[in-house]
Request: fold
Amino acid sequence: MIYISIIIGCILGAIIGMNTPVISYTYSSYLAIAIIAALDTVFGGITSVIKKNFDLKIFLSGFFGNAILSIALTYLGERLNVDIYLAAVVVFVGRMFTNLAIIRRHYVDKWTNKFAEMSHKNKKEVKE
Amino acid sequence: MQEKKIAALLGIMCFLLTVGICIQMRTVTSTASRMGRTYAENELRDSVLKWKEKYDLAYDNLETKESKLEKLRESASKSSETSENVKTDLGKNNMALGLTEVIGKGITITLKDAEVAINKLDLSSSLVHYSDLIEVANALKNAGAEAISINGERIVNPTAIACAGNIIKINNEKVGVPFVINAIGSPEKLYGALTMLGGYIDKLKDDGVTVDIEKKDSITIPKYDGVYKFEYAKVVE
Reply:
C-alpha cells in the first residue's frame, strides 16, 4: 500500500517535473539541498512506518523544517564563504544510509523467516 | 485508515520530491553544467554560470539605462545649445547697447578751453561747446569708432549732449573741461579722420582750443549706466 502510493507519487512528480519551467541556476544549489533533506525525511518516514512509530506531526515538520533549515544553512555558508551545505549533505546522506539499513534489515529478516519457514515446511513434507 | 493516511502522505511527499529532483536535473542539464573532475573546476564553472546570469541581468539593465541616458542627453544637449546661443547673443547685444565695459585700441582726444583768447572779439569761440563735442563724436562715429566715451560717459543711442550753462550734460551727467574723449576703433583711421585738413579739429585749433590726440593700444571704455526705456516703441511682430 505504502510503496504503491510512493511509486504513483514518483511517477506523477516526474511527469509534472518534466513540464515545469526551469529555475535560475543561482538557486539550484538551494533546491538541491532541499531535495536531499526531503529525501532523508521520506526514508525516515518509511523507517518509522516499519517500526510502527510513525507520527504525522513529526514527519511533516521534519520534511519542511529540514528543507528550510538546510536552505538557510546553505545561504549562510555562501555568505560566510564556508561550505556548510556539505555538512548538511553528510548528515542527511548518513541518516539516509542508516534508515536504508533499517529498512533492508527488516525486509531481509522478513524474507529469511519466510524462506526458513518454507524450507522447514518442505523438509517436513519430504520427511513425511 | 491510519495506513491509508500514511500512504497518501508519503505519496504526496514523494511527488513533491520527484518534482524537485526533475526541476533540479533539468536546470543542471539546461545550464550544461556537467560534473567536473575536480572540485575546483566545479566551483569555477559554478561561479562562471552565476556571473553569466548576473551579467545577463546587468546587461539588460544597462540597455534600458542607456536608452534612458540617450534621451536625457538629447534633451540636455538641446537645452545647452540654445542656452549657449542665448548667451552669445546676449553678449553681443549688450556690447551693441553699450551695457558692458569694452577694451581695445583706439585714440584719446583731450579738448581744453584756450588759455589765451585769440579772438578777443569772440571769446566764446575759444571755449569748448557742446556742439564741438557732438561734432567730434560724429566725426569719430563716421570714421568707424566702435565705442566712444566723453569724460567717462558712454555715448550710446539715447545719449544726448546738451548745453547747461557753464557745463555740458552728457547722459544727464555734468561734465566739464578738460574733455577727454576716448574712442575704440582703428587708431590710424580715427586719427586721420580727425586731423585732416579742414576738419573739425583743425577749426577748433584755429579757434585756440587746445587739442591733444593720442593713439593708444589699450583703451577701456566704461559701460552705459542708464536704463533703456521703451514706452511708445513696440516690436513689430
